[in-house]
């Protein structure tokens, strides 16, 4: 779609794409819709209607719903794009056979922790990220919004990067990725919000080496899946009903 066609369609909604305040109007509407309806419930169409623009104009400026959320929350990056690039096998495994291959091996967890901490603690991201964490603790609306965003974008990116979506059930992939979230969000909260001295004072390398292996175990190691009998545990790499074998062999 050309700028001219987007402008013509946008003018039908009462606001021309050339207005200096159009982008901010879209972002204001997006913040309100995400807060009121959550990440799932907020739609591009509803955001466009609130901003009095055509939905095509929202896509024209921001592309995807995730990118719009990132812009509305003042995040300097689109999280899933950063994670996908950072966790591609060739980014952390010097012996990777092919660029972009998925899977978990020794070093995956450490690289994930280093990547996350580097992003969270960057000058562009730190205050915004801390604000989102604090809001999620004090506001149910903010908690729902952040929970749905993390589940839809970040955890799905982790599952793909780890190869969890290629083998086994989607329920197991979701549970393993959610266990990673408990570790990473706990790390973020204790380091950046609570500033618990031993955690806040540790170096990135210390935390990566300490937490990384636990991330790998959650992704590929033996875990107790919900609904299974006690002692009937799943191990990453076991043969699924479909006959596939999950790649990777995490520690522990």
Report on the structure:
- The chain is 64% helix and 2% strand.
- The protein is mainly α and 252 residues long.
- It folds into two domains: 3-70, Orthogonal Bundle (Arc Repressor Mutant, subunit A), CATH 1.10.10.60; 75-235, Tetracycline Repressor, domain 2.
- A two-stranded antiparallel ribbon has the order 1-2.
- The longest helix is centred in the C-terminal third of the chain and has 24 residues, at 170-193.
- It is globular and about 50 Å long.
- Mean pLDDT is 82; it is low at 1-14, 97-101 and 238-252.
Layout of helices and strands, plus pairs?
Elements: H1 3-12, H2 22-41, H3 44-51, H4 55-62, H5 65-72, H6 79-87, H7 89-92, H8 108-120, H9 126-138, H10 140-162, H11 170-193, H12 197-200, H13 204-220, E1 222-223, E2 234-235
Antiparallel strand pairs: 1-2
Helix pairs in contact: 1-4, 2-3, 2-5, 2-10, 3-4, 6-10, 8-13, 9-10, 10-11, 11-13
Can you give keywords for this protein?
single chain, about 250 residues, Arc Repressor Mutant, subunit A, Tetracycline Repressor, domain 2, two-stranded antiparallel sheet
Number of domains: 2
Rg is 20 Å
Counting H and I runs of at least 4 residues, what is the number of helices? 13
Q: Can you identify the CATH class of the largest domain?
A: Mainly Alpha
Secondary-structure element order, N to C: HHHHHHHHHHHHHEE
Strand order of the largest sheet: 1-2
Give start-end ranges of low-pLDDT stretches.
1-14, 97-101, 238-252
Q: Strand-residue fraction?
A: under 5%
Helix vs. strand class: mainly alpha
CATH superfamily assignment of the largest domain? Answer: Tetracycline Repressor, domain 2
Basic shape: globular
Largest sheet: 2 strands, antiparallel
CATH fold-level assignment of the largest domain? Tetracycline Repressor, domain 2
Distance between the termini: 52 Å
CATH architecture of the largest domain: Orthogonal Bundle
| Helical content (DSSP H or I, runs of 4+) | 55-70%
Instruction: Count the beta strands.
Output: 2
